[in-house]
Give the backbone structure.
Amino acid sequence: MPMAALMICLAGPGSTAFAQANVAPDDATGQVQTNAAAAGETVSERAQAQSLDQEVQALKNEVLDLNRDLFLLEEDLLFPANSQVAFFVSMDVGEYFALDSVNIRIDGKEVSNYLYTRREVDALIRGGVHRAHKANLKTGEHEVIAVFTGKGPHGRDYRRGATVTIDKGIGAKYLELEITDRVIKQQPEFVIKDWE
Amino acid sequence: MPPARQLLNWLGFAAGLVACSGATAADVEDSNSIVIEDPHYGEVLYYFYQQDYFPAIVRLLAARQQQQLPSHDAEAELLLGGMYLSYGHHLAAAEIFERLLADNVDPDVRDRTWFFLAKIWYQRGYLERSQQALGEISGELPQNLQREALLLEAQILIDSGEYDQAIARLQNWRGKTEWASYAKFNIGVALVRSGRVDAAAELLSDLGKLNPFNNELMALRDKANLALGYALLQEGQAGAAKASLQRVRLEGPFSNKALLGVGWADVELDNFQAALAPWMELKGRDLLDSAVQESMLAIPYAMAKLDSIGQAADHYLNATEAFREETERLEKTIQSIESGDFFGTFVNSSSLDSTGWYWQLETLPDAVESRYLFHLLATHEFQEGLKNYRDLNYLYRNLETWQSNIDVYSNMLETRREAYSVRLPVIEAALERADLAAMVGRKLEFDSTLNNIEAGTDWLALASRAEFATWGEITGLEKTPALQSDIPEAAEARDKIDLLKGVLQWQLERAFGDRLWRIRRELRQTGEALVDTQRLRRKIDESMRNEPLHFAALGGRVEDLYPRIEASKMRVEDALSAQRAFLQTIAVRELRAQQQRLDVYSIQARFALAAIYDIAASTGEAPE
């Protein structure tokens, strides 16, 4: 048999392939993991992966705490509680108005013009509240004007303003720029009010 | 759906943990049920809904420290746990959930939470923790979760080599859902691994003939046929093996191995001609696949068996060359990976907006290396490692940003301190000029004078300057000696003066009450202004006392944060290196394995070629 030697040289029927094809679902979703990779998941590697993961977990904790402290420092430094005024945009339902942007003027001066992405508008509709602007204001009366731009009922361009005169005292003041649906009128409504 | 998101969906943070027992994903999706009482909580949700977990967590931690979430305390804790999970901070999340679950919580809530934690830990390779969490489930989970939990438990047992236990867990599985198919497959795998091929064959054969209604089941059917086919091949049942392998789709992830197996089944049946058909089909496919590589040796083997020695020799030569080129490419890839550049592409190729649990590598970086690591990139171990690598990179950049910001804040603070020190003497001088005590004294003096005027009804005291002058003139005229003479003209003049004096007095007396009221009002206003000024002065004094302390406190915080940023940055950098080294090790190991396989194939090819030449030399025939 001239080919006998060749037979010996070659692997038996599908020996390598069998090892690889002996697939097993690595999770309940049935994703495939080949044995070549699975074999590599040695115990020591898994232990190393876990040890690294634990280190990452500890670091996440550390950096999150650090970020909290830095965030608070930034707030205290830039917007001391006594003079702070924050403007929060909120949205209820959003059937009659698709928000594009909010423009805020304080005492006739434009302080913020924020353009919303679709993702941000979705977050607002789901109940999120966006801090559109933060400012330092002296005690006393100030006029606030907010202009909301977007698409109104029937997809028409819509631009409405709301105004309020606020009395800034000592301590932080939070204002809500609220967009609500007026079901009876089938129109959106825009209100600026103290957050209560 | 990733387990963390599933967990969040049903937890329904709006309702709070206790009220959550009946919540479903749909309840949570209904945003109308969320009433935001504290704006800062709404702000956290704003980021949370955009899946920007890191800023959402930071805001929540900050708001909680500032006690700005009085109305959302309970939900905030639960939301934090959920966000930690989403961010891949699973140990911290577990701490929160374990704490919440220790309270008097609805058993349904507790069981579901344990289930999701088990699932997450399994993915992260914490098998023991995962098993423990499953063990904490005391009641009945909803049916779909119950099935998943059972599969998960069996999978953990299979991973730990406890095949009999895994089989026992799954054996009583009933139902016709796709979960049942997965269970069957898992039992089959466990049976094969424990050497009970006949028992496995029955199960896998059923599965291999199922009528799939979606892509997942199609893949599962292919897998079952492949596993069964090779198990039967190994048992020497080539005919049955071929039938099973031929049920695998021709264009699927398992098709290469199936084609290879069909060929070997034909070889077992001594049908070398037939074996060539699937192998020749394989030959044209991607050489990266080990089945394709093996086919390059199998083809000349079959040809040699068919006495086509010359063709066999050509194929062996081609294979040797192809293996050599592939080995060289692999070597270059290994060098590139060892240089560390490759992993940079994972963090540079897409934005770092998404971090944490949900991030998944959906498209491979456009690099030569990707092609060789295809299988590796699909594994949990590597994916989780990559997630950590990206998260660490995010942390590093975050710290870098803060490091430059804190420099700005430090400068800002210093500028303010200087401006304050410049303004302070000017303000102090102005304050000294404004003698508040003297002002108060004068005001009190006024009060006293006014009291006397009122008590004495001293209407002349409140006369205007003109009236007072007129009054002086009249009284001056009264005293004129000429008017004292007893002549009719003098008497007439005296009468006129009396009349004038009387009119003026009447006017002054009439205006007295009004004037007194006005002066009192003004004096009261002056008093109030003085009180305000005194209050303001006290505030200025307080500010002058506190401002340096305030500067010192802020300065202290900045100074404290500086080294913390630096230290964290260094630790993150170290962890990044370690994580990269770990990923490199796995990747290089995978590539070395591919190289070794190619080496073995090359040796086999060369040996076979040498044998062919030997035979040819001994028979005096050159290979055609």
Q: What stands out?
A: Confidence is low (pLDDT under 50) at residues 1-5, 12-32 of chain B. Residues 488-619 of chain B form the longest helix (132 residues). Chain B touches chain A through 123 residues (CB under 8 Å).
